[in-house]
Structures are given as structure tokens and as C-alpha cells.
């Protein structure tokens, strides 16, 4: 390759770099201090305690509302998973886990199933039927190589999304327990995940400890 070809290629590379920088600068968000000047101050909220749900013997590590807006599931350091009627403050289900530090829990969209996991590196689903002990019909869906930090159903009872200390997020098929898709790129423990309600389960965001970063993924 002669000098003219090298020079031409270098010129093209420099032009592409400038174009990328220009496109990136157009998408750059403003600083919070600057952007907040254009909004009115939010008035103080008058927050009142409506219910206190007591029952765990250790730190509460996970909470999730059901879509019926009445039930809450909580997981704790005591190795218990509790399903509450938030209106009456009563416990409807108490499930003992095979491990302490149950860090994640989630309701399915139908409210018929809960998922949970923690230091056992697994995510297990439990059907909620008054006629039968949930432990009898439990189903192991997901297994990671490190602790399970978060889980949520992906817009249906049939897909489950999990995040882990192994720096990965994985989408699972609940029925078969097979991995559908894995998401990598984090340099630290994945601590939280949430999906976009406007994207019908096609987009989710994850957060990482220690690195002050969030990642947005397409499914």
C-alpha cells in the first residue's frame, strides 16, 4: 500500500471520527443543574403511613407490588418469602426458602405466581393457590454462577428476566427453564433491572454496583 493510499485511509478515519463526535454531541443530555432551572420546584409531599407489614425476622431485601394493586410480596434475610394483603395487613402465604438472604422477588402479571432467589444463585417460581402448599409445586427456572440480585417477569407469566452478581442478565423460559437470551457487558455485579412498559417487553435497563452505570438492552 503506497503513501497516498495510507493518507487517504487516514483522512477517511478522521472524517468518520469527527462525524461520530458530532452525532454523539447532538444526543448528549444537559447537566441536572442546568436542566432543573427550567422546571418549577416540586411542592413538599404529605406522605402518611397507611399500613405497617410486620412478619420478617431479618432485613427486608426485596419488595414488589402485584398488578392488582392489593398484594405485596417481600423477601428477607431471614430466608422467608411473604405474600401480603396490603389492605388488611395479613399474610396470605409464608414460604421458607432453602437459603437465607432472599434478595429478589417478583409477582407475575397474572398474580398467580411469584419468583424469588438470592444467595443460592437460583431463581425459583412458586404458584399461589390456596388449596396447595406452594413449596410442593415450586419450579426452578434460572441458575447463575453467582448470587441472584434481581428478577422480574417480562410482561407475561412465560418469561423471566434475572440479574446476578456474575455480571450477567438472562431471559428465561419459565415453562422449560431454558435460557432464551443472555446479556453481557457489565464490569460489575448487576444489582437491579426494570423493563419499559411502553415497549411490550422488548427493552429493559440494568444497573451495576461500583461503576455508577446503567445499561439499556433490546430483547
Can you describe this structure?
The structure is a single chain. This protein is mainly beta and 219 residues long. The protein has helices spanning 3-27, 32-35; strands at 60-65, 71-76, 80-85, 90-96, 104-107, 113-117, 122-127, 139-143, 148-153, 159-164, 169-173, 179-183, 190-195, 203-208, 213-218. Strands 1-2-3-4 form a four-stranded antiparallel sheet, with no helix packed on it. It has a four-stranded antiparallel sheet with strand order 5-6-7-8, with no helix packed on it. The two termini are 43 Å apart. The model has no long low-confidence stretch (mean pLDDT 88). One of its GO terms (biological process) is signal transduction. Belongs to the WD repeat G protein beta family. WD repeats lie at residues 53-85, 141-182.
Summarize the entry for a quick read.
WD repeats lie at residues 53-85, 141-182. The protein has two helices and 15 strands. It has helices at 3-27, 32-35; strands at residues 60-65, 71-76, 80-85, 90-96, 104-107, 113-117, 122-127, 139-143, 148-153, 159-164, 169-173, 179-183, 190-195, 203-208, 213-218.
List keywords for this structure.
repeat; globular; mainly beta; WD repeat; single chain; WD40_G-protein_beta-like; WD40_repeat_dom_sf; 219 residues
Which percent range describes the beta-strand content? 35-45%
For the report, how would you describe the main beta sheet?
Answer: 4 strands, antiparallel
CATH level-3 fold name of the largest domain: Methylamine Dehydrogenase, Chain H
Instruction: Look at the structure and name the CATH superfamily of the largest domain.
Output: YVTN repeat-like/Quinoprotein amine dehydrogenase
Q: Any guess at the CATH architecture of the largest domain?
A: 7 Propeller
Give the CATH class of the largest domain. Answer: Mainly Beta
DSSP strand tally:
15
Mean pLDDT: 88
Tell me the radius of gyration: 23 Å
Order of helices and strands: HHEEEEEEEEEEEEEEE
Provide the domain count: 2
Helix content range of the residues, please? 10-25%
| Poorly predicted runs of 5 or more residues | none
Name the structural class.
Answer: mainly beta
Strand order of the largest sheet: 1-2-3-4
Shape: globular
| Terminal-residue CA separation | 43 Å
WD repeats: 53-85, 141-182
InterPro entries: G-protein_beta_1-5, WD40/YVTN_repeat-like_dom_sf, WD40_G-protein_beta-like, WD40_repeat_CS, WD40_repeat_dom_sf, WD40_rpt
Pfam families: WD40_Gbeta (PF25391)
Family: Belongs to the WD repeat G protein beta family.
